[in-house]
Amino acid sequence: MEHHWSRAARHKLMRHRRHAKIIASAHFKNSNGGTEVDLENTFQLCAHGGRADVVKVVTTAFCLEDAIRLVHVAKNVRLPGNPPKIILAMGAVGQISRVFNEYLTPVTHALMPGIAAPGQLSIEEIATARKMLSIRAPMKRAMYIIGQNIQMSLAPLLFNTAFKYLHFEHEAKIFETKDASLDSILKLFKSPGFGGACISAPFKTEILPLLTDMSKCAREIGAVNSVAVLKGEEKDGGGGRRRMIGGGLYGHNTDWSSFYKKLMTERVATHGAMAIVVGSCGTARAACYALLTYGYTHGSVVVYDPINHKRAEEVANHFKCEARKKLENMRNVNVIIASFRKFGPKQMEDFIIPQPVIQQGPLVIDSRYFPLHTRLEDQAAVYGCNTLRGLDLLILQSIEQLKLWVGVKHWAMVESAAPVIDRAVRHLFYEKFVKNSAKGDSSDYSKKQLLQ
To answer: How far is CA 153 from CA 145, 214, 346, 410, 447, in A?
Structure first.
């Protein structure tokens, strides 16, 4: 909404906005916007008494001082409602304004035939400039993948690929512990530079006592796969001293959302249908939660663990579902979620579903991503079942974990980068795990299937 519109036109638009967000803008194509007082008045006019959701001021810079003046005014002006500001000084000498702009910065790309506006920069150029000037440079943090038998985990490769693409200095590392005690994990959480964690088996439920707070879904699932650091707030402690209030560790679960999104995509019917969750780890809890949230009734979800029926009963009791020792007699099954550990017991590598059940043609979701083709997935393909690979799940849930770690301010950047991260991770996975596989998965067909 341009500020040069008539007062009546602007007020009419705001009255009929409903749920729309309004960016109130002022463009000075052939002017530097005037003095600091002039610019401040422009910002106040665009704020519309707090009714504008975003304030945008674009000027033309004829010298470096024009751009610096715009940045200075934007930083210090106090607007009603405190809306985000977009500040751009057009032209080569105004590029510094794009480096300092903190909200919806327009960018170009090396593959574009040209720039869309004078002085426009690429993401890489802006990120490099900000790093050199220490502008909005987040402290380098270490993100850990915590679990047992996780040396083959793809998570560090995925997260470090994402951090590099997003120009964050963070690094993802493996933290493997053979001790079932939480002492070493608690020590890690308190270490300098700790920025968050991806929790793997067997700690998804055991780690809960170490957390300060949890999301609603994590609390109801009773398991977390993500830990983020809560920022504390400095308060006046008296006597000139400052003390930190709040802070701690926040637990969240992104496992369930990847299952839920697949059910939504496939438009799975729930009326009169049965769903099976195979396994009893933290991922099995997330699968049960996803099925119930999607619309399955408690009586239509069955938990089955061929190795540990007692744990299957614990999961089933938590969600008021049913635990079974055998599956052969089940009817109307349209979803099977196998939630084994990625690198779990050897006896589970050859697990398949009883023929009377698999021939009903259910949607089969296998949470394992290694090997590329599990025996369960091969069995499902023989019977024409639709499947979802563990790699697909990993990427979906990891994008949500990234958003949790980098904070709300960077959500839009993570969302926009998700397709690129997805593609890059699939290529890296192929190179690392599939290309030199002794089982013949290095065929062109396997690569095309992986990159779909």
So the answer is: 8, 25, 16, 26, 20
C-alpha span between 327 and 339 (Å, rounded): 16
pLDDT tens profile 331-343: 999 999 998 765 4
Place of tokens 């926009």: 416
8-state DSSP, 280: -
Tokens standing for residue 392: 């697909």
CB 54 within 8 A of CB 21: yes
Map tokens 């796969």 to a residue. Answer: 225
What is the spatial distance between Cα 96 and Cα 93, in angstroms, rounded to a whole number?
Answer: 7
- 98-105 contacts, C-beta under 8 A, 24 or more apart: 98/126, 99/126, 99/129, 99/130, 99/133, 99/135, 100/71, 100/135, 102/136, 102/409, 103/54, 104/54, 104/412
Residue written as token pair 């697990």: 351
- What pLDDT is recorded for position 321? 96
* Total residue count of the chain as it appears in this document: 452
Separation between Cα atoms, residue 202 and residue 283, nearest integer Å? 10
C-beta of residue 436 within 8 angstroms of C-beta of residue 372: no
Distance CA 229, CA 328 (A): 46
Q: How confident is the model at residue 76 (pLDDT cuts 50, 70, 90)?
A: very high
Model confidence at 138, pLDDT cuts 50, 70, 90, reads: low
CA distances from residue 255 to 162, 229, 260, 426 in whole angstroms, order as listed: 19, 19, 9, 19
The mean pLDDT value for 350-364 works out to 93
Cis status, amide bond into 371, omega within 30 of 0:
yes
Beta strand 54-60 with 85-90: parallel, antiparallel or unpaired?
Answer: parallel
101 contacts 88 by C-beta, under 8 angstroms: yes
Distance in angstroms (rounded) separating the CA atoms of residues 301 and 319: 9
pTM, rounded to two decimals: 0.73
Q: Could you tell me which of 361, 216, 342 has the C-alpha nearest to residue 289?
A: 216
For the chain, give the mean pLDDT: 87
Return the CA Rg of the chain.
26
